[in-house]
Design brief:
mainly alpha
Length: about 110
């Protein structure tokens, strides 16, 4: 992964052990819980039944996942558009029959 150096230590497979010295949840388990919570609107307490992860751990995992995504992608994808971006978006919209439209996902804000 190109952004591996930016990855949060929370998702490192060897980052945490429980009091008995056993490894904590794997990065795969943590990402799965975060994605399920976002995709299906699952509550954190419902994850305990299917993933064996406590509510507080699920909430912490979701927060860490979101923060990691922001840190990895903010410079390229999570920024304000510059003039070049706006011009490109306007040209694309005009080519598709929506002159002057920027940012309308439902195409309802045009005359």
């Amino acid at each position: 992964m190109a952004h591996a150096n930016l990855m949060n230590n929370y998702f490192n497979p060897n980052s945490k052990r429980d009091r008995a010295g056993r490894p904590g949840f794997s990065p795969h388990q943590k990402v799965t819980v975060a994605l399920r919570m976002m995709a299906y609107g699952s509550s954190a307490d419902s994850m305990d039944e299917t993933n064996g992860m406590s509510e507080s751990t699920c909430l912490n995992t979701l927060e860490e996942f979101c923060n990691t995504i922001i840190q990895v992608y903010k410079d390229e994808y999570l920024r304000e558009p510059n003039q070049e971006d706006l011009n490109r978006l306007l040209r694309k919209a005009e080519d598709r029959g929506f002159p002057g439209m920027i940012g309308s996902l439902d195409c309802m804000h045009w005359d």
